[in-house]
Specification:
Elements (H helix, E strand, L loop, with lengths): L6 H15 L4 H30 L13 H13 L21
Length: 102
């Protein structure tokens, strides 16, 4: 399941919510929480779109997980190392980088 939470934990959280909040206010609280999650997702999507636009060409497939510096550097190095050699270019030396050093 999401966040590695099982059915037993979800049932336990629901019972705890009923006890702490009360059955009268629980549906309203759940709908407000869902609304908050949707707003956060929309803000995240908007921020990612703005980053793609501001970074320019080459970053059209930017994902939020790519913003981790380690992931970003590994991806850029993989793109450079997978480049094709043309006839006019000198052969590129084979570079071996230990990913754990990044």
């Amino acid at each position: 399941m999401f966040f590695d939470i099982g059915a037993g934990e979800i049932i336990g959280l629901a019972i705890l919510g009923l006890i702490l909040v009360g059955p009268e206010r629980l549906p309203k609280l759940a709908s407000e929480a869902a609304s908050l999650v949707r707003r956060i997702q929309k803000m995240s999507h908007t921020a990612t779109q703005e980053l793609r636009e501001n970074l320019g060409p080459g970053f059209e497939n930017l994902q939020p997980s790519d913003l981790n510096p380690k992931t970003f550097i590994k991806k850029q190095l993989a793109d450079v190392m997978d480049g094709s050699n043309e006839k006019d270019e000198l052969p590129k030396p084979v570079v071996k980088i230990d990913p754990d050093l990044l």
